[in-house]
Amino acid sequence: MRIGLLGAGRIGTFHATALAHTDGVDGLVIADADPARAAALAERLGAEAAVPATSVMSAAEAFAQVEAVVITAATAAHADLITEAARNRLPTFCEKPVALDLGRTVRALREVESAGTLLQMGFQRRFDAGFRAAREALRAGRLGRVHTIRAVTSDAAPPPAEFLPLSGGLIRDCLVHDFDAVRWLTGREVAEVYARGTDGGAACFREAGDVDTAAVLLTLDDDTLVTATATRYNGAGYDVRTELSGERDQWVVGLDDRTPMTSAEPGGPGAPVRPWSGFLERFDGAYRAELAAFVRAARGEVPNPCSGWEGLRALVVAEACELSRREGRPVRPAEVAERAGVPAL
Fold first, then answer.
1. DSSP 278-333
2. CB burial string 154-164: b at 16+ within 10 A, e below
3. Strands 119-122 and 92-95, sheet pairing
4. DSSP readout, 59-72?
5. Which of 53, 60, 242, 271 makes a 20 to 30 Å CA pair with 333?
6. Residues 321 and 227: beta-carbon distance below 8 Å
7. What is the DSSP code (8-state) at residue 156?
């Protein structure tokens, strides 16, 4: 299968490298808004650059040459590229989100639905070995009734200041992964959220209307309580953990010899020698498994493992959290969906 990769930045370079070594991929065509960047990456991987590689937004050249599409372009381009791929009847993988607003997300998903094509969203935690093992244990009843979930997502250092206004904010950019993971792990929906955020770090967060640290309390539809925290300042290293506490047992995802933590107990473990540096390193295997699953789904060998509607559900929760943070009150995701005219999910 010939795959078109649209966007040759950091995540695009990672995905292109993975796709070049994925079973079932016998050709890779790379397009980018910067033709030189696409050409350089293609040359390094022995792939092809879309000719002419004029821009990501006018990627018709790449569409005409491939059988499926992987979108790793800037977030602002996602919805248009998804729409064009659907109109070209191409199975598509897209890094989250479809768009940063609910209305545009729904319109793009309707295009996919109308075309009858596949759209797989990039929520890589669903393919991480630890998350998958925890889900199996929970679903098998090994934890008993799960009453509390604690999720942590912490960046080792803030992203570039110019990224912040384009990111959608800490909650939409980072915590949305936790929202999707919680839904996927438990099979439950979020009934209510309460969110707070602080911006005591660099001025660029305040200038972008963002926060550098956030904490959210989620109540699931079976009354399970979930806390989810995120920060851009975790100098010890990159940290993603999810604890599942049940009446019979307690499991944690992301606790290993590279977890950036130091025990305060006498004789407890010290700081890891080589803590996780970032999301690409921490989820290397998950990203590769995710793309392999997309290739199989695009070939019709397996069902879509994470549809665009799953991405919309996680975004609705994120939007509810943003509203809660701004207004200082509990918010039901159903309220946000109804306001935005989002169809019943």
1. -HHHHTHHHHHHHHHHHHHHHTTSS--SSBHHHHHHHHHHHHHHHHHHHHTS-B-H
2. bbbebeeeeeb
3. parallel
4. THHHHTT-SEEEE-
5. 242
6. no
7. S
**Final residue in a domain of this structure, among 59, 88, 117:** 117
Q: Are residues 64 and 138 in the same domain?
A: no
For the cut 60, the answer to whether the pLDDT of residue 198 exceeds it is: yes
Q: Are residues 107 and 239 in the same domain?
A: no
Give the residue from 73, 91, 117 where a domain finishes. Answer: 117
Quickly tell me which residue has 């065509």 as its tokens. 29
Residue 51: pLDDT band (50, 70, 90) is: low
Listed residue (220, 176, 117, 126) closest to 313, CA to CA: 176
Residue 345 lies in a domain: no
Number of domains in the chain: 2
Contact between 2 and 66 (Cβ < 8 Å):
yes
Which structural domain range is residue 189 located in?
A: 126-279+312-336
Q: Token pair for residue 259?
A: 């977890």
Q: Which two tokens stand for residue 5?
A: 């990769």
Q: What is the pTM of this model?
A: 0.95
Does the pLDDT at position 99 exceed 80?
yes
The CATH number given to whatever domain includes residue 179 is 3.30.360.10
Cis-peptide, bond into residue 91, ω within 30° of zero: no
